[in-house]
Amino acid sequence: MTGLGKNVWQLVMPRIDGEFLEDPSYRREIEDLVREGIGGFILFRGSVEKTPARLRDLQKLAEIPLLITSDVERGLGQQLTGGTRFPSQRAVASAISRHSKQDVALLDSMLDAVRSETRAAGIHGVFSPVVDVNSNPANPIICTRAFGSEPEIVEWFGRRYITQLQKPRANGWIDLLACAKHFPGHGDTDQDSHSTLPVISADRPRLNSMDLPPFREAVKDGVGMVMVAHLLVPALDPGKPTTFSKKTVTALLREGMAFDGLIVSDALDMLALAADYSQEEIAVRAVEAGMDILLHPKDARLTAGAVTAAVGQGRLTSKRIEESVERILDAKKRLGLFEPAGDGKVLPDYELHRSIAREIGRKALRIVSGSKSLLPLSPKTAACFLIDDDGAGRGGTFISALHARISDFGATVLTPDSRLSPEQLQESIARAGWVVLPIVSKIAASKGRCGIAPGLEEMGHAVIRAAKEAGKRTVVISFDSPYLLDGFRDADLCIAGYDWMDEIQQAAAEMLVGKREP
């Protein structure tokens, strides 16, 4: 392979599935990419027991150390079983008061835990924090992944994440590269770039006051990576998606903000681009715009070949490729990847980290309407109607915790396929002292909405109406988007949980009826 070919491979970062690395045939495919000179991988799934050893084996095959990254906005447990799953960024922002030294110390402990777990797993770059300002309540893909809807809050938490995740060691190396995403801001849209190309219609003054400030601050804070979203932002470049826009990637981010770290594309297989462009064209245009890392292409070899061919055709220059390679190698040196690796026997304190997750989850809950004086509830009977928007069986922890504390308790799970007759509803409500309506609706790629399905929303309103008519007290809890509660403000209590993790469900039950089981 020529020097140009080796250089191009450093820019390519395909997906790797940790759980499949136990399969010999899949492992051979990945090993072949390593031998060809792939620059690194984005890791999904696996376990803390097996995946780190497999990653160390791959590193031993690499001529140039691999840069392993992962999407761990909610901690290592988001990807690897056995790792700690922390609350969403919106839940963290709810739990942590910036003016409390104790709260800030708790946040730092959480970020220390994320750093120690991910590096122990063999991961060097985390695609976190999300510094989008979620200014559109209908946003189907950012929502609780963001710290909030105000730039100042996003900036403060973004700074804390970046500085703690990239905290230097005594020798000057760092364990992790953090990543500010999704530049230039994915918060003001009601579309999901996994499925389509969202349009950000804000004018330049609005972008400068709302969406861009958290990225400027992240650059000042020394963030190691910035991920560019697949968006169309006419105020920045009327004719090109941001991924292909030299005005946005090079002129605004690289030069205008003086960012000297790695510029990473969002996943190149997302339909925002893949629906209209070939893999080859996506790769070449992204590098032309100023991208350093081509993330999650469908075919790594096709992507590398297209970029190499583009140099031969004169669309790209060798110098342009060398600039990215130099930044990538500098990042690997900063992470200490060229130094002898440890044996991986030092394990993080997972039990301590889970206690931190529980504490933050407990503190995240917020009463957004109604009186706190109504708590704790003291019913001998209660009826619970759980809205499971995804039909994935989430919400069981909350139901079990309530059932253990209420002697006469009935629970009905409502999914998009459910039917709820007026007779069933009235019969369940008639016996109840309180009526509880928890909502579980996960923010997920390609789902296309942040609200609940129309049929489920109507069932939820029917529950509250019937309870009111029967003279019963009502409480609604959202275990994800707080915006869902806007349609249920006629309930006696509305509580935001910001996340459906078990720790928050347990804490919500304790908030309603107390910690002790009867």
Describe the structure in your own words.
It is a single chain. This protein is of the alpha/beta class. The chain has two domains: 349 residues, TIM Barrel, CATH 3.20.20; 149 residues, Rossmann fold (3-Layer(aba) Sandwich). The chain has 18 helices and 15 strands. Helix 1 crosses helix 12 and helix 1 packs across helix 13. It is globular and about 75 Å long. The chain starts with a helix and ends in a 5-residue tail after the last helix. The model has no long low-confidence stretch (mean pLDDT 95).
Features:
18 helices, Rossmann fold, single chain, 518 residues, globular, 4-stranded parallel beta sheet, TIM Barrel, alpha/beta
Please state the structural category. alpha/beta
Share of β-strand residues: 5-15%
Largest sheet: 6 strands, mixed
- pLDDT averaged over residues: 95
Give the overall silhouette.
Answer: globular
Residues in helix, %: 25-40%
| Total number of strands | 15
CATH superfamily of the largest domain: Glycoside hydrolase, family 3, N-terminal domain
Radius of gyration: 24 Å
Counting H and I runs of at least 4 residues, what is the number of helices? Answer: 18
The CATH topology of the largest domain turns out to be TIM Barrel
Measured distance between first and last alpha carbons: 71 Å
**Domain unit count:** 2
Strand order of the largest sheet: 10-15-14-13-11-12
> CATH class of the largest domain, please?
Alpha Beta
SSE topology:
Layout: H1 3-10, E1 12-13, E2 15-17, H2 24-36, E3 40-44, H3 51-61, E4 67-70, H4 89-95, H5 101-120, E5 125-126, H6 151-165, E6 179-183, H7 204-211, H8 213-220, E7 225-228, H9 246-256, E8 262-265, H10 271-274, H11 279-289, E9 294-295, H12 300-313, H13 318-334, H14 350-364, E10 366-369, E11 381-388, H15 396-403, E12 408-414, H16 422-430, E13 434-440, H17 454-469, E14 473-478, E15 493-496, H18 502-513
Parallel strand pairs: 1-9, 2-3, 3-4, 4-5, 6-7, 7-8, 11-12, 11-13, 13-14, 14-15
Antiparallel strand pairs: 10-15
